[in-house]
Amino acid sequence: MEVGLNHYLALAAILFSLGLFAVVTKKNAVTVLMGVELILNAANINFVAFARFIDTDLDGQIIAVFVIVTAAAAAAVALAIVLNLYERLKSINLDEADSLAG
Amino acid sequence: MDFTNIAFYIFAALTVGSAGVMVFHRNVVYSAVGLLFAFFGVAGIYVLLAADFIAIVQILIYVGGILILLLFGVMLSQKLTKVDVRTESMQLVPAVVVVGGVLAVLLLTISSTPWKLAGSLEYEPTTKAIGRLMMTEYLIPFEIASVLLLAALIGAAYIARKN
Protein backbone atom coordinates (compact mmCIF):
# COMPACT_ATOMS: atom_id res chain seq x y z
CA MET A 1 0.00 0.00 0.00
CA GLU A 2 1.30 3.44 -0.93
CA VAL A 3 2.27 5.50 2.14
CA GLY A 4 0.24 8.70 2.15
CA LEU A 5 -1.01 11.44 4.44
CA ASN A 6 -3.18 9.02 6.46
CA HIS A 7 -0.17 6.92 7.46
CA TYR A 8 1.71 9.92 8.83
CA LEU A 9 -1.36 11.21 10.66
CA ALA A 10 -1.97 7.77 12.17
CA LEU A 11 1.66 7.60 13.34
CA ALA A 12 1.27 11.04 14.95
CA ALA A 13 -1.97 9.94 16.62
CA ILE A 14 -0.29 6.86 18.12
CA LEU A 15 2.65 8.98 19.34
CA PHE A 16 0.23 11.51 20.85
CA SER A 17 -1.64 8.75 22.68
CA LEU A 18 1.56 7.31 24.11
CA GLY A 19 2.61 10.77 25.31
CA LEU A 20 -0.81 11.40 26.83
CA PHE A 21 -0.63 8.04 28.60
CA ALA A 22 2.74 8.95 30.10
CA VAL A 23 1.43 12.34 31.24
CA VAL A 24 -1.65 10.98 33.01
CA THR A 25 -0.14 7.85 34.60
CA LYS A 26 3.41 8.65 35.65
CA LYS A 27 4.22 9.88 39.13
CA ASN A 28 7.77 10.97 38.28
CA ALA A 29 7.85 14.62 37.14
CA VAL A 30 10.69 14.03 34.66
CA THR A 31 8.76 11.21 32.96
CA VAL A 32 5.72 13.48 32.67
CA LEU A 33 7.97 16.00 30.89
CA MET A 34 9.11 13.27 28.51
CA GLY A 35 5.45 12.58 27.72
CA VAL A 36 4.93 16.26 26.95
CA GLU A 37 7.87 16.13 24.54
CA LEU A 38 6.30 13.13 22.79
CA ILE A 39 3.03 15.05 22.40
CA LEU A 40 4.88 18.04 20.89
CA ASN A 41 6.68 15.71 18.45
CA ALA A 42 3.34 14.25 17.37
CA ALA A 43 1.97 17.73 16.73
CA ASN A 44 5.07 18.55 14.70
CA ILE A 45 4.67 15.46 12.52
CA ASN A 46 1.14 16.65 11.78
CA PHE A 47 2.34 20.13 10.81
CA VAL A 48 5.07 18.83 8.51
CA ALA A 49 2.81 16.18 6.96
CA PHE A 50 0.12 18.73 6.14
CA ALA A 51 2.78 21.06 4.73
CA ARG A 52 3.90 18.24 2.45
CA PHE A 53 0.61 16.75 1.29
CA ILE A 54 -1.95 19.57 1.36
CA ASP A 55 -0.37 23.01 1.34
CA THR A 56 2.99 22.30 -0.39
CA ASP A 57 4.54 25.54 0.83
CA LEU A 58 6.84 25.95 3.82
CA ASP A 59 4.46 27.52 6.35
CA GLY A 60 3.93 24.23 8.19
CA GLN A 61 7.65 23.59 8.47
CA ILE A 62 8.24 27.07 9.92
CA ILE A 63 5.52 26.50 12.52
CA ALA A 64 7.34 23.25 13.36
CA VAL A 65 10.55 25.23 14.01
CA PHE A 66 8.66 27.54 16.37
CA VAL A 67 7.15 24.54 18.16
CA ILE A 68 10.67 23.15 18.70
CA VAL A 69 11.84 26.52 20.09
CA THR A 70 8.88 26.66 22.46
CA ALA A 71 9.53 23.07 23.54
CA ALA A 72 13.14 23.94 24.38
CA ALA A 73 12.02 26.93 26.48
CA ALA A 74 9.36 24.84 28.20
CA ALA A 75 11.82 22.04 28.98
CA ALA A 76 14.32 24.47 30.51
CA VAL A 77 11.75 26.17 32.77
CA ALA A 78 10.02 22.90 33.71
CA LEU A 79 13.31 21.26 34.71
CA ALA A 80 14.20 24.28 36.83
CA ILE A 81 10.85 23.86 38.58
CA VAL A 82 11.49 20.12 39.04
CA LEU A 83 14.89 20.81 40.60
CA ASN A 84 13.31 23.38 42.92
CA LEU A 85 10.64 20.85 43.86
CA TYR A 86 13.36 18.32 44.68
CA GLU A 87 15.17 20.95 46.75
CA ARG A 88 12.04 21.47 48.89
CA LEU A 89 10.45 18.01 49.07
CA LYS A 90 13.50 15.74 48.54
CA SER A 91 11.31 13.94 46.00
CA ILE A 92 9.89 14.55 42.53
CA ASN A 93 6.83 12.42 43.07
CA LEU A 94 4.00 14.62 41.82
CA ASP A 95 1.58 13.18 44.40
CA GLU A 96 3.63 14.74 47.18
CA ALA A 97 3.50 18.24 45.69
CA ASP A 98 0.12 18.91 47.30
CA SER A 99 0.83 21.72 49.76
CA LEU A 100 -1.72 23.93 47.95
CA ALA A 101 -4.44 21.33 48.55
CA GLY A 102 -6.45 22.06 51.67
CA MET B 1 6.67 -1.51 -2.36
CA ASP B 2 9.31 1.06 -3.18
CA PHE B 3 12.09 2.28 -0.96
CA THR B 4 10.34 5.24 0.67
CA ASN B 5 7.44 3.04 1.81
CA ILE B 6 9.81 0.55 3.42
CA ALA B 7 11.74 3.42 5.03
CA PHE B 8 8.49 4.85 6.41
CA TYR B 9 7.57 1.58 8.07
CA ILE B 10 11.08 1.18 9.51
CA PHE B 11 11.10 4.70 10.97
CA ALA B 12 7.51 4.39 12.19
CA ALA B 13 8.30 1.11 13.95
CA LEU B 14 11.45 2.64 15.49
CA THR B 15 9.49 5.68 16.71
CA VAL B 16 6.50 3.82 18.15
CA GLY B 17 8.63 1.04 19.65
CA SER B 18 11.01 3.46 21.36
CA ALA B 19 8.13 5.62 22.56
CA GLY B 20 6.57 2.45 23.98
CA VAL B 21 9.78 1.66 25.84
CA MET B 22 9.82 5.24 27.14
CA VAL B 23 6.24 5.04 28.39
CA PHE B 24 6.18 1.51 29.81
CA HIS B 25 9.66 1.01 31.28
CA ARG B 26 9.86 1.56 35.00
CA ASN B 27 13.45 2.85 35.05
CA VAL B 28 13.69 6.56 34.23
CA VAL B 29 17.11 6.23 32.57
CA TYR B 30 15.73 3.55 30.22
CA SER B 31 12.83 5.88 29.49
CA ALA B 32 15.31 8.60 28.47
CA VAL B 33 17.13 6.19 26.14
CA GLY B 34 13.78 5.16 24.59
CA LEU B 35 12.98 8.83 24.05
CA LEU B 36 16.37 9.26 22.33
CA PHE B 37 15.54 6.66 19.69
CA ALA B 38 12.00 8.00 19.34
CA PHE B 39 13.48 11.43 18.50
CA PHE B 40 15.77 9.83 15.91
CA GLY B 41 12.81 8.01 14.36
CA VAL B 42 10.82 11.24 14.14
CA ALA B 43 13.82 12.90 12.44
CA GLY B 44 13.74 10.12 9.82
CA ILE B 45 10.01 10.72 9.33
CA TYR B 46 10.78 14.41 8.70
CA VAL B 47 13.33 13.44 6.03
CA LEU B 48 10.69 11.30 4.30
CA LEU B 49 8.35 14.31 4.42
CA ALA B 50 10.93 16.41 2.50
CA ALA B 51 11.71 18.51 5.59
CA ASP B 52 15.50 18.17 5.72
CA PHE B 53 16.06 21.32 7.80
CA ILE B 54 13.48 20.29 10.42
CA ALA B 55 15.10 16.85 10.64
CA ILE B 56 18.51 18.35 11.45
CA VAL B 57 16.97 20.82 13.90
CA GLN B 58 15.16 17.91 15.54
CA ILE B 59 18.41 16.03 16.11
CA LEU B 60 20.35 19.11 17.23
CA ILE B 61 17.79 20.53 19.64
CA TYR B 62 15.86 17.51 20.89
CA VAL B 63 18.71 14.98 21.09
CA GLY B 64 21.51 17.45 21.77
CA GLY B 65 19.60 19.79 24.04
CA ILE B 66 16.28 18.75 25.51
CA LEU B 67 17.20 15.10 26.11
CA ILE B 68 20.45 16.11 27.83
CA LEU B 69 18.46 18.52 29.99
CA LEU B 70 16.04 15.72 30.89
CA LEU B 71 18.93 13.41 31.79
CA PHE B 72 20.39 16.17 33.98
CA GLY B 73 16.99 16.38 35.62
CA VAL B 74 17.04 12.63 36.27
CA MET B 75 20.59 12.66 37.62
CA LEU B 76 20.11 15.69 39.86
CA SER B 77 16.82 14.62 41.34
CA GLN B 78 17.26 10.90 41.97
CA LYS B 79 19.23 9.03 44.53
CA LEU B 80 21.26 6.95 42.08
CA THR B 81 23.14 5.15 44.82
CA LYS B 82 19.91 3.98 46.40
CA VAL B 83 18.66 2.62 43.03
CA ASP B 84 15.62 4.81 43.32
CA VAL B 85 15.43 5.68 39.63
CA ARG B 86 12.03 4.08 39.26
CA THR B 87 8.75 5.63 38.31
CA GLU B 88 5.43 4.44 39.58
CA SER B 89 2.29 4.38 37.48
CA MET B 90 -1.11 5.16 38.83
CA GLN B 91 -4.72 4.78 37.73
CA LEU B 92 -3.82 2.51 34.85
CA VAL B 93 -7.32 1.31 33.96
CA PRO B 94 -8.99 4.74 33.58
CA ALA B 95 -5.92 5.97 31.70
CA VAL B 96 -6.08 3.05 29.24
CA VAL B 97 -9.80 3.66 28.68
CA VAL B 98 -9.44 7.43 28.12
CA VAL B 99 -6.28 7.24 25.98
CA GLY B 100 -7.71 4.35 23.94
CA GLY B 101 -10.86 6.37 23.34
CA VAL B 102 -8.85 9.41 22.26
CA LEU B 103 -6.76 7.26 19.90
CA ALA B 104 -9.84 5.59 18.41
CA VAL B 105 -11.53 8.95 17.77
CA LEU B 106 -8.35 10.34 16.18
CA LEU B 107 -7.88 7.33 13.89
CA LEU B 108 -11.58 7.34 12.89
CA THR B 109 -11.40 11.05 12.07
CA ILE B 110 -8.20 10.60 10.07
CA SER B 111 -9.56 7.71 8.02
CA SER B 112 -13.01 9.20 7.40
CA THR B 113 -11.94 12.72 6.37
CA PRO B 114 -11.73 13.33 2.58
CA TRP B 115 -8.39 15.18 2.47
CA LYS B 116 -7.83 17.53 -0.49
CA LEU B 117 -4.38 16.39 -1.50
CA ALA B 118 -2.07 18.59 -3.50
CA GLY B 119 -0.69 17.08 -6.67
CA SER B 120 3.04 17.59 -6.91
CA LEU B 121 5.35 15.80 -4.47
CA GLU B 122 8.91 16.60 -5.47
CA TYR B 123 11.86 16.70 -3.06
CA GLU B 124 13.83 19.92 -2.93
CA PRO B 125 16.13 21.52 -0.31
CA THR B 126 14.23 23.69 2.17
CA THR B 127 16.96 25.40 4.21
CA LYS B 128 17.42 28.42 1.95
CA ALA B 129 13.68 29.00 1.56
CA ILE B 130 13.11 28.69 5.33
CA GLY B 131 15.91 31.16 6.04
CA ARG B 132 14.43 33.62 3.56
CA LEU B 133 10.94 33.31 5.07
CA MET B 134 12.31 33.71 8.62
CA MET B 135 13.91 37.01 7.66
CA THR B 136 10.93 38.39 5.73
CA GLU B 137 7.42 37.07 6.35
CA TYR B 138 8.08 35.52 9.77
CA LEU B 139 10.46 38.16 11.13
CA ILE B 140 8.25 39.22 14.06
CA PRO B 141 7.57 35.65 15.31
CA PHE B 142 11.27 34.95 14.88
CA GLU B 143 12.23 37.90 17.09
CA ILE B 144 9.55 37.04 19.65
CA ALA B 145 10.87 33.46 19.77
CA SER B 146 14.39 34.73 20.48
CA VAL B 147 13.15 36.98 23.30
CA LEU B 148 11.09 34.06 24.65
CA LEU B 149 14.17 31.82 24.71
CA LEU B 150 16.21 34.50 26.50
CA ALA B 151 13.48 35.07 29.08
CA ALA B 152 13.01 31.32 29.60
CA LEU B 153 16.73 30.71 30.13
CA ILE B 154 17.10 33.61 32.59
CA GLY B 155 13.96 32.47 34.41
CA ALA B 156 15.17 28.87 34.53
CA ALA B 157 18.56 29.90 35.93
CA TYR B 158 16.84 32.09 38.54
CA ILE B 159 14.35 29.41 39.61
CA ALA B 160 16.91 26.61 39.81
CA ARG B 161 19.60 28.39 41.80
CA LYS B 162 20.06 27.61 45.44
CA ASN B 163 19.01 30.21 47.96
Give an account of the 3D structure.
- The complex is a heterodimer of chains A (102) and B (163).
- Chain A has 102 residues and is mostly helical.
- Chain A has a domain at 27-90.
- Helices cover 77% and strands 0% of the residues of chain A.
- Chain A has three helices and no strands.
- The mean pLDDT of chain A is 88.
- With 163 residues, chain B is mainly α.
- Chain B has two domains: 1-88, NADH-ubiquinone/plastoquinone oxidoreductase chain 6, subunit NuoJ (Four Helix Bundle (Hemerythrin (Met), subunit A)), CATH 1.20.120; 124-163.
- Helix content of chain B is 74%, strand content 0%.
- Chain B contains six helices and no strands.
- In chain B, helix 1 (3-24) runs antiparallel to helix 2.
- Chain B is globular and about 55 Å long.
- The N and C termini of chain B lie far apart (61 Å).
- Classes of the chains: A mainly alpha (102), B mainly alpha (163).
- Chains A and B meet through helix 1, helix 2 and helix 3 of A and helix 1, helix 2, helix 3, helix 4 and helix 5 of B.
Kindly list the characteristics that best describe this protein.
heterodimer, A: 102 residues, mainly alpha, 0% strand, elongated, B: 163 residues, Four Helix Bundle (Hemerythrin (Met), subunit A), 74% helix, globular
CATH superfamily of the largest domain in chain B: NADH-ubiquinone/plastoquinone oxidoreductase chain 6, subunit NuoJ
Would you count the extended β strands of chain A for me?
A: 0
And the CATH topology of the largest domain in chain B? Four Helix Bundle (Hemerythrin (Met), subunit A)
Mean pLDDT of chain A: 88
SSE topology sketch:
The complex is a heterodimer of chains A (about 100) and B (about 160).
Chain A: H1 5-25, H2 29-55, H3 59-89
Chain B: H1 3-24, H2 28-48, H3 52-77, H4 92-112, H5 127-135, H6 139-160
Helix pairs in contact in B: 1-2, 2-3
Quick overview:
The complex is a heterodimer of chains A (102) and B (163). Chain A has 102 residues and is an all-alpha fold.
